[in-house]
Model the fold of this input.
Amino acid sequence: QGRLRLCPRRYSNPLDDIKPMVARDDLLDIQNYLGNVQVADTVLDYIVRLCEATREDTLVELGVSPRGVIALTRMARACALIRERDYVVPEDVREVFTSVCAHRLVLRHSQRTGGP
Done:
């Protein structure tokens, strides 16, 4: 009475239940096609200026690195492809900027704690 009964747990790896959503070759084709999505010099300049601005902001300890610029460019290309375009527009960059760059920023301590 009143005793806790311990049931044996069934241990399984949830990764065993994952099913592929796209074939490997199809994914490689998509990745290769991204290189065909055009990025005009003006849009590339916009991407670089956005990332440089994060490094110059006084509220930011560590801004978006050159590798972040590359990641942002790739994701903007993917966004354009999803929108059925073979060229990137500034709206593509804005749409993916936070997802790509937020984790790449380190705010100054005073900004993280809300203090001076």
Notes: The radius of gyration is 22 Å. The first strand starts at residue 60 and ends at 62. The first helix runs from residue 24 to 34.
